[in-house]
Amino acid sequence: MTIPIRKKWKNGPLLGDWLNQCVNELLGEKGHIASIDYSNRKAAYVGETLYSGGRVISCNEEEREFQIEVFIKNEADEILAPGFAAVVRM
Questions:
Q1: What is the mean pLDDT of the chain?
Q2: Position 5 confidence tier, pLDDT thresholds 50, 70, 90
Q3: Interatomic CA distance for residues 82 and 21, integer angstroms
Q4: What does the DSSP 8-state code read for residue 6?
Q5: Three-class secondary structure of residue 4 per DSSP
Q6: Which sign, positive or negative, has the C-alpha torsion 37, 83, 50, 12?
Q7: CA triple 77-86-66, angle to 5 deg
Q8: What is the DSSP string of 24-41?
Q9: Chain segment 39-60, per-residue pLDDT in tens
């Protein structure tokens, strides 16, 4: 009996967890995530190299709150998981 091997990951929350980890590593001890929202748009495949990134889209310096647009891209520069994070700097 042969069982077909799926090449597609069942990513589900995996990419969201990775986005969360990337923002936390960026902030370090200098801040925390107030909220994070993302959506899975495309599948990631086993062996594919993925990249995370983002940019600050707004800031309230008085409150030390920042809105960051975040993403995970694949080797073809396609966005797999776009999202937004609200962060607070200490």
A1: 84
A2: very low
A3: 15
A4: P
A5: coil
A6: positive
A7: 95
A8: HHHHGGGEEEEEEEE---
A9: 999 988 888 888 889 999 999 9
Query: What are the tens digits of pLDDT across the range 52-81?
Result: 899 999 999 999 999 999 999 888 999 999
Which of these, 39, 37, 28, 27, lies nearest to 65 by C-alpha position?
27
Q: Sign of torsion, CA 14 53 87 84? A: negative
For residues 19 and 37, the answer to whether their CB atoms sit within 8 Å is no
Contact yes or no for 86/37 (Cβ under 8 A): no
Residue type, 84: F
